[in-house]
Amino acid sequence: MNLLIKNVILPDGDKLKTVDIAVTDGIIKKIGKVEDFAADETIEGGNRLAIPAFVNAHTHMYMSTLRNAADDLPFMEWLFNGVMPKEDRLDNEQAYWGSLLSCAEMIKRGCATFCDMHLFPGNSARAAVQSGMRAVVSRGLVGSEGGQKRLDDQLKEIEEWKHEKNIKFMLAPHAIYTCDKEYLLKISSEAKRLGLGLNIHLSESKAEFSDCMRDNGCTPTEYVASLGLLENKTLAAHCVQLTENDISLLAKYNVSVASNPKSNLKLGNGIAPIYQLDQAGVNVCIGTDSAASNNSLNMFSELNYMTLLHKGTNYDSTAIPAKKALDFATVNGARALGFDNLGRLEEGWAADIALLDTDVPQMIPLRNYYAAVCYCCDGSETDTLIIDGRVVMKHKELLTIDTEELYYNINKIVNFLDN
Ligand SMILES: [Zn+2]
Fold it and tell me: The pTM is what?
């Protein structure tokens, strides 16, 4: 399958250039002036900006049905009184529609890949396959009680979906405060046996940090390191509360950190030391967390917060420049999730490409590629999205998701949850 994208804008050093992009079987074959290419499909880029599609490194896809259900509450009240009672009423099919709603929102905002921690096996994988997205899926494991059943659910999910080319798996001990030590050790050894990475919430809140100091005499990061968890390929979400030693440990074990700036702010958990993590050589990537805590799944917005927050907190306008932040949101996320040659627009790399309108006031004049993406875009500029060489949104129309059917089902679920 040959796809030709004509006349799109890419950076050329400090300047901009207009190029064509030729894609064969999901791989970028040529960037430049393309002639003599037998295209099965041609997209007229119309001088739109081409960017590598985003990798959202931390989501809970099914939770989009809980958007705006609990806001401005203390963290534990939000979780235990706001989110969980509604979540407990959701069934498998409802989780699928919630996940598909998340796919629709992310595609509309230029995102091609997500890493999900879910409660309903199979549904985020099903939504990803339906929508044409790439995904890493993991069952949120809590225990010990019932822990083996959840682990078995995860193993079944892997068997069911492992044949899908764009679906990968991790094991996800939910957090150190929801898994006891034996369960953490068990998950870690299962991950080693299966050759899978770990996806864990780590050091998200001050309460998690101080409880761990009280109960274990060490920080959450030191605790998981002492149990050997970090010897697995690990993606740690949040990492807000870190000591200097924690940062050294995360670097030493090559842990990838999925920072969720807006979720951390909205839940009053603070700001992760991203500048320091990056300086220490940690692979930093970006996630949205769920629509219950964000309340959107817009990677442009996260990118903007990521660049601005760390300039402000470090009193340094050169901290986390736009180009670096875009790497966090693309190639670093792909690396954390184990997708090779994904997250850059270069020949030989995967054709996951978002095309952004430039004929809107906030993009004029278009001087600097990276500044435009990080400081000007709000995401509404996303016109077309290509994932693995397949056009899943063309001129703002979703081609893989029937939105009428989707919204009908979401309304039904919301009526059920709220009554
Ligand atoms: Zn999370």
Answer: 0.97
